[in-house]
Structures
1.
Amino acid sequence: MAPSIVIDSVTKQFTLRHARSIKEMSVRALRRQSLSDRFKALDDVSITIEQGETVALMGLNGSGKSTLLKMISGVMAPDAGSVLVRGRIAGLIDVGAGLHPELTGRENVYLNGAILGMSRAEIERKFDLIVDFSGVERFLDDQVKFYSSGMFMRLAFSIAAHTEPDVFLIDEVLAVGDPPFRKKCLDRIRELRGEGRTMVIVAHDIKMLVGLCDRGVTMRDGRVLFDGPTAEAGRLVREARAAKQVAQSASTPL
């Protein structure tokens, strides 16, 4: 059986601009300082994910995990290397991603469903399920710009989770919303996993990831540090967090 996701030697660079105003640019020019720097968010990353695997991407902030998820989703293109994904992709890489603020919740179900590859007939067949799962029935005909971040996430997650995707991507969205809905999301993720969907999840909750994922990939400075059992991947992240806290404490003046 062919893999669901093949990430081959992917590199992605970004430009950091140090000067935002004419004054700052002039000062840096006089001091012969660079106006910008390039840094590698991803540096020669290669990962193969088999069909039906549930993979956790772990690492400290800035390690490259969210950038890699955007590469898989197609939101970003690599500077070098390639990303191949088989089948329909759905999920959330930003809270409320795909929701149009000027449209109502009802209109967004149809719009976002279509963006994620659902036909109108499929959306209509699943409409009540999507709305019931999201819990935003009372606000369905309000513009989503008036929704709270939790309501945004509930509706966006519900639409994505009912598209029957081949590949489901999640980036930190489970950190938003109330505990009962987070549990509901986790139950739905487990259902998708049981159906053989391929999933890639980014989250800071290591305990949740260990209980949910078959495999953990730990990233550091844009590179893959470890790829294997989720518990071991989580241990490396905990150690990195502890080391960072010690370094920050040592540098803080008394």
Note: The two ends are 59 Å apart (CA to CA).
2.
Amino acid sequence: MKFEEWEPHYQKILLLFGFEREDDERAAEYARTLTDKDDLALLKAACSGKKVTVCGNAPSLKDETDLIQGVVFAADAAADYLYKKGVKPDIVSTDLDGCEDSFSEMSSEGTIMVVHAHGDNIPLLKNWIPRFKGPVVLTTQSRPFDGVYNFGGFTDGDRAVFTALEMGAEEVLFAGFDLGDISVNPMKHGKLMIARELLGILGYDL
């Protein structure tokens, strides 16, 4: 998705949640100072022409691992769950708030870390990015620049879907998605509703 197409959705998100664009931009710039890695080519090669399963971190994931096919693209904490169950993600979409030590292990084993910078995760960026020894791709919610990309999407899960499609995935499958979960706090519920709306733009009804 071109930034010009994404920006109206982004502006709506800023208004709805009270986020500051300048904070997102500052975080993205800071993330770029923490690594010189830009493994976009590896990310494209991993997805292009492939069947990709995006794994969310809903409780249903434990009952849906048999649905996983092709490239395993895990959303944040789902990566830790899968890894401990013996399924190493090929790619992880993360804003780092679900990171565990296993993320460093996965990175060392070649998992591509698609690390998202936003206004309130600067301490996490500082802690985790230097620990990723394998491939890294940086993303932002705001305007992309020099090795920091914006493929569209808002939460780790729907952002993974946007990324997979932007990288040329032939088909995207889903495991561990529950965007209608009303048991979460209001902020999280609101984010899930935005995720559902954005995935609807791509033609997915979840």
Note: The chain has one domain: 3-201.
3.
Amino acid sequence: MSLILRRERLIAALDVPTAAEARQLVEKLGDSVSFYKIGLELSTSGGYFELLDWLVKRGNRVFCDLKLHDIPETVRRAVANLRGRGVTFLTVHADRGVMGAAVQEKGDIKLLAVTVLTSTSQADLAEQGYAGKLEDLVLARARAAAELGCDGVICSGLEVAGIKAKLGTRLLAVTPGIRPEGGDVADQKRVVNVAQAFKNGADYIVVGRPIRDANDPAAAAASIQATIAGIFPS
């Protein structure tokens, strides 16, 4: 596994309606963030690929959080279209056929398999017809991701320790659902704070609303970076 730069462990989610607003947020954040997530909302607003190219040209890392989930051939071709554009991470759902097809075309992209969304609870899974434990499902999907050649997984900080205990460093663990202690969790259900996520073994965290909605987004990001610096000496 390649060395992870400390300042890149924070991935700021550009969860805003338009590419223009995304650029404004990036410029507002300045040097406090160097790694950005562009996701589903921006992909339907126009200007997605222009934003991607702009971020790459600036020297930023880019995480395309598209959570691809379709028939394997469609996923394979979609992944091929993203190769060579400077994308660091791309998400696909942890379906075996989907992951296998995506791996065939990933090239220079690191593929992250979405295990169970952090907005999903045990009760939600039961309603969907799954009778097992949520953490067992996450681990099973992480194992499949490793077997099929994915580079990492998206999982809650609550499940990172179990994945690392069973699979070691075979997979990167990228953790969304980050909320400050006592903060509003909104639609997230399996949340941790920054320190807990890294203590449990996360390699990267994805932070959206706590930065985006802060009175001073750059200060909020800088505070998270300071916490990360206290955890990782270099």
Note: The chain has a mean pLDDT of 93.
